[in-house]
Amino acid sequence: MYFIIFVVIVIVAVFGFYQTTVGDRNRITEKISSIGGTLINYEKRGIFSGSPFKIIGRGVRVYKVSYEINGEQKIGWVKIGGLFGPDWKL
Question: Which residues contact 58 (CB under 8 A, 6 or more apart)?
Answer without folding.
Answer: none
